[in-house]
């Protein structure tokens, strides 16, 4: 960033902090506080969790196994990472745990649906064999 832009941001930050309580200043200036990516990335990642939750109301044949598995694995991997970074980011951990859980549930729904299709197909084949064998 240019020096002019940084100076403008620093001036704006000072003016904002003048209006804050000490408690709010602590949250604002925390290493994982409101001014950092450590706060905003998980805040926006909740949109993925909400999208996954909205998929609970969609029929399983309309869901993507690849997408749900990707969300599940992303949640699992980044849950671990969020506890390794400094500072530990518990907000990131919670959103990724929710994302992994949502993805896991959707993958289960999809696999259950696919298995039921195979079972229905086998049952239909067995009935056809019985009916053609009895003629």
Number of strands: 0
User: Which percent bin holds the helix content?
Assistant: over 70%
User: Which percent band covers the strand fraction?
Assistant: under 5%
What characterizes the major β-sheet?
A: none
Structure class: mainly alpha
**Average of the residue pLDDT scores:** 85
First and last CA, distance: 83 Å
Shape: rod-shaped
What is the number of helices?
5
Poorly predicted regions = none
Instruction: List the helices and strands in order.
Output: HHHHH
Rg over CA atoms? 25 Å
Descriptive notes:
This protein is mostly helical and 135 residues long. The chain contains 5 helices and no strands. The protein has helices spanning 3-18, 22-29, 37-54, 65-82, 90-133. Helix 3 packs parallel to helix 5 and helix 4 runs antiparallel to helix 5. The longest helix is centred in the C-terminal third of the chain and has 44 residues, at 90-133. The radius of gyration is 25 Å and the shape is rod-shaped. The termini are far apart. The mean pLDDT is 85.
